[in-house]
Uridine phosphorylase
Amino acid sequence: MSELLPILRVNPADMPETAIVVGDPFRAEAISHKLANAKELAHAREYRTFVGEYESVRLAVVSHGVGSPGAAVCFEELAKAGVKTVIRVGTAGSLSGDYKAGSLIVSTAAAREEGLTRQLVPDGYPAVADGAVAAALYEAALEAGAPGLVGKGITVTVDAFFSGVVELPHEAYRKAGAVAVEMEIAALYVIASLRGMRAGAIVALDGDSTAVDEGYDPHRNVVAEAVEAEINAALKAVVKLARP
Ligand SMILES: O=P(O)(O)O[C@H]1O[C@H](CO)[C@@H](O)[C@H]1O
Ligand SMILES: O=c1cc[nH]c(=O)[nH]1
């Protein structure tokens, strides 16, 4: 039987205990360029796996694609490989007038407005960040700075990016004080809780969440600068967590 993880196509023995996960395979590659001794272990489907060192801490950088079901496959296989700490570095839409494009948000918990986790745990089960990971990310983000503000709060994980004829739940969550909406954090937090990993997430805001249906443009400089800032913050957080 193959030693490789069936979907990531990586040998578990090659995986460090810490992983940064991102939706975009090109973002994974960009992060790998910041690592010493970086090496790509595999590129299977949307999953690219790099390993390397940052300030002498070994870590993996893995892309999980768009949406919770595909991302869950990645998170489950990371757990099977013995990964203990997972940090998602993503993009999200803003639900708050206070946080514009270019701001960074550390997700303290995620509303489970997707379908994947309903097939894993009961409806009342929470999707929460690990406290130490969230604290390290927030501290590192304040130090890294961003073109916008740095904040923390509840994020919302949905399945539908563009809306159909049914109203998405964004407005109710906006009124309830959630700050951002994206597509994978709830899956990460639930799977991490089930599989004994600690997890956290930071997102760069690419515009108001309602903008996705009216000329979504995640390629502006302000977004690229915020993504660069959150990558640097996540790498610093990895070091803070490895050497508290
Ligand atoms: O930028 P990433 O990490 O992919 O995150 C966000 O961007 C994608 C949608 O464009 C979804 O995956 C969403 O969660
Ligand atoms: O899921 C996402 C990601 C980025 N921006 C959004 O509005 N939604």
